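Issue: ligand-bound run for zinc ion - logging full I/O for the record.

Environment: standard queue, default settings, no custom constraints.

Inputs:
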Amino acid sequence: MNQDTVYLKIKRAAESDKECCLCLLEDEIERRYIDTYLLELVMDPTSRQKIIESRGFCNDHYYKMLIAATKPESPDGHGIALINRSVIDALIQDLQKLKRNRNADQLYKLVADENKCPACIHLSEFSKMYAEEIIKILSSNNEESLAVLNESKGFCVPHFVSLLCIAEGAASTDSQKAVKALIEIEEKNLRRLSSQLIEYVRKQSYEFSEKERKAVSGAMLRSLEKIAGRRGIKPLIDRKRKG
Ligand SMILES: [Zn+2]
Ligand SMILES: [Zn+2]
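Outputs:
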């Protein structure tokens, strides 16, 4: 994907009404991956080999695949059954090996976690590319693209933390400018949600009509999307700290 396309996609997501433009982009990448997988990759020998090596998808992506495969407009679950048979055959071989020798590496091989799941790997590569471009924009002096992000609804807290870590780790001296901008964008949007929640709670009183209550009902879901991020969100970087 060339840089202009990456920027245009970020711009479109930042100008949307969503609480986190990275969550929106991840949702789109994930949906496209799942559709392509079910239509094409499921029969592709290289992809088949990859899925056998990872021992399937992670829990979240397996169920998302299953839901997509059972939609009327989608091909049936035949492809998933073929994958599962190959994975199960590989697991049977793993068990044979476990009978002879057991170690932590062999046990790790049995479960497809987010470090091995092909869908997670695909998603994280694209997401990191978008995140790095966002940091680049926020470190730049390009007023037009800076305005797009400054006026956006910002990021969910998990993505905000990932972006901060990427900016702190960037070699560029301008990355501190990005850190400052990120915090300002986030604070402004958290304040917006805080006011919306105050309004939401106030309107629950009996003196307001059903229509007035409905007008503020989005605040609850919006604030949840801001705090928790999209369903199934994965950290972009390893945030585990010792001690
Ligand atoms: Zn997000
Ligand atoms: Zn996954």
